[in-house]
Amino acid sequence: MPLDAVLPAFLIAVVGYVVGKKLNLDKRTLSRVCLYILVPALTFNSLATSRVDLGVAWRLALATVLFSFVQAALYLTLFKMMKWEQATSRAMLLVSVFTNAGNYGLPICLFAFGQAGMDLAVVFMVTQTVMLATLGTYIAASTQMNTRVALKQVLKMPAVYAAAAGALVKAARIPVPDVAGRPVGLLSQATVPIFLILLGVQLIGNGRDHEPWKETGVAVFLRLIAGPLVAWLIGLGMGLTDLALKILVLEGAMPTPVNSSILAQEFNSKPGAVSRATMVGTLASVLTLSMWIMVLRVL
Predict the structure, then answer these.
(1) pLDDT per residue as tens digits for the range 101-129
(2) N- to C-terminal Cα distance for the chain?
(3) Which CATH number fits the domain that encloses residue 86?
(4) Residue 125 to residue 254: CA distance in whole angstroms
(5) Structural domain boundaries enclosing 243
(6) Cα–Cα–Cα angle for 190, 191, 193, nearest 5°?
(7) What span, in angstroms and rounded, lies between the C-alpha atoms of 36 and 294?
(8) Is 132 in a helix, a strand, or coil?
(9) Average pLDDT, the chain
């Protein structure tokens, strides 16, 4: 059953919502722990220990990069045609361009396509982590800053340096001593459950902002329906086949990531609107992801 691949991850987010509401957990503190500690640890560990074929991995990584830029270009053009103000357009780009490839996507890919699917999903997740730390940071920061200052914020994101270090360790086969590898490994193992809990906490109190629901509906549709179609076309163009193509499409069908809400909160890029769209998309994804898994399994 496709739903069996989606519900386990979703239920952990529900736990985060309930516990966060009861204990009044601080969103900003949890967000910053994830952004500055857990994401870099997971990024480094995933790259340094990945076992996927390098040729497939590079094509999948490049397809992931193109996926972000193509969506940004298409959706920004659409938002301009709809005459949205710049702040709203940039905030909704955070919603519609990036996917919850890590804390939601990794377990779902594992449940849907096994360990081989999980290994390929890590490549997508790590690449998009870099894209979110760079392009995502620029989109969020540029709502409040000029281009020069926004680009400086990109260089402050530790996930960028963690990705570079992990890729170097993998390519050069540099052994990581246990005194460093073990704590990084432990932190990376904590990332998925903590992110799912944070996802639930992030949903508390959403929907109370004064942004029109039209923007939310458009952005969620682009994320859950248009996004995976774009991913499919890009994957075919990159020569991806079989499981690699399926993982690209499935990761492209994930709802908006917690990190988009984190960046919106960090740079005050309409965080209420982004969080609300994250909530709506996450709830709707239980059905849309089940649909996509069913389609991908048939192919």
Answers:
(1) 877 888 889 888 988 888 888 889 888 87
(2) 16
(3) 1.20.1530.20
(4) 11
(5) 3-298
(6) 75
(7) 36
(8) helix
(9) 83
CA dist., res. 99 & res. 256, Å (int): 5
Q: Name 228's Cβ contacts closer than 8 Å, sequence gap at least 6.
A: 249, 250, 252, 253, 292
Q: C-alpha angle 160/255/66, rounded to 5°?
A: 50
Residue 1: burial class (beta carbons within 10 Å; 0-12, 13-18, 19+): exposed
In 3D space, the residue among 106, 112, 98, 100 whose CA is nearest the CA of residue 46 turns out to be: 106
Calculate the dihedral angle through the C-alpha atoms of 105, 60, 236, 95, rounding to the nearest 10 degrees. Answer: 40
Half-sphere exposure of 28 (CA within 13 A, CB side): 5
Q: If you average pLDDT over each of 53-62, 167-176, 213-222, 284-293, which comes out highest?
A: 284-293
Q: Which pLDDT tens digit goes with each residue over 218-264?
A: 999 999 999 999 999 999 999 999 999 999 999 999 998 876 766 77
Residue pair 154/131 in contact by the 8 Å Cβ criterion: no
Extract the tokens encoding 51: 């076992």
The first and second tokens of residue 267, run together, are 């740079």
Cα distances (angstroms) measured from residue 246 to each of 97, 240, 255:
19, 9, 16
**Cα–Cα–Cα angle for 150, 198, 47, rounded to 5 degrees:** 65
Question: Could you report the per-residue pLDDT of 56-99, keeping only the tens digit for each?
Answer: 888 999 999 999 999 999 999 999 998 888 778 888 888 899 99
Question: Could you tell me if 221 and 286 are in contact, meaning their C-beta atoms sit under 8 angstroms apart?
Answer: no
DSSP state of 2: T
Percent of the chain at pLDDT above 70? 90
CA distances from 39 to 7, 31, 48, 66, 171 (A): 23, 10, 14, 22, 21
The two tokens of residue 30 are 């949890």
Q: Tell me if 45 sits within 8 A of 109, measured CB to CB.
A: no
Higher pLDDT, 219 or 138: 219
